[in-house]
Amino acid sequence: MQHILSLVRRCVEDYRMIQAGDTVVVGVSGGKDSVLTLAALARLRAFYPEPFQVEAVTIDAGAPGMDFSPIADLCAALEVPYQIVPVPIYDIVFRERKEKNPCSLCAKFRRGALSTALTERGLHKVALGHHYDDAVETMLMSLFIEGRISCFQPVTYLSRTGVTQIRPLLYVKEKEVVHTVERLGLPVVENPCPANGHTKREEMKGVIASLEREFPQVKERIFGAMQRYPICGWEVE
Is 234 domain-assigned? Predict the structure, then answer.
């Protein structure tokens, strides 16, 4: 965890993600990335020079079989206030609209519900669990599929809601996430979504794995280029 905390702190400082007095709400889906984001920020708050508070919110999309009680137990252990917000996203996406490519719509609903949950409580900063590999995959998906060079930003201000999204796990690689979650025994809630494992992102993981066999440092080269180019919002302060 010390290694993860050093990467998270450097990322937070490089992009000035947290200011004194902030309450950072972690959007916890139950997956490994968001759970590690929660645990890391809960520990970082103990020694970060600019004092801040941490809370957690889960958008319960209504997928069958989801049990967030392990997340509630983790939040209690970390002394982090926790809220579950039920939203019938699963029914809308899969039963009513029967979307063939549901991920984009589902993500849009989740982001909207999360922003609403924050603003209703007068909070304006949310931490998302995107990591190093997510950034590389997103940039390549944008290039290959949309024909443009772009990616989500480390810090994103949503002018319509006044919510700022931060991504403090961006310097942490996926294999480090997996290893740390296993070593710490952090709870992970399995996702029963029918589209899980059959997305464009999964296809891009395969493309990158193929590239790595020929160019072992390809992810590091791409991530570095995103900061040096820089892609909008990626310049290090």
Answer: no
**Cβ contact 135:152 at 8 Å:** yes
- The pLDDT tens digits of the residues spanning 54-66 come to 999 999 887 788 8
CA neighbor of 2 nearest in space, from 176, 167, 170: 176
For the domain that residue 105 is a member of, what is the CATH number? 3.40.50.620
CB 222 within 8 A of CB 212: no
Q: Identify whether 27 is part of a domain.
A: yes
Domain that holds residue 82: 2-228
Indicate the SS3 state at residue 188: coil
What pLDDT, in 10s, does the model give residues 114-141?
999 999 999 999 999 999 999 999 999 9
Q: State how many domains the chain has.
A: 1
Residues 86 and 68: their CA atoms lie apart, in Å, by: 12
User: Looking at this protein, which amino acid is placed at residue 48?
Assistant: Y
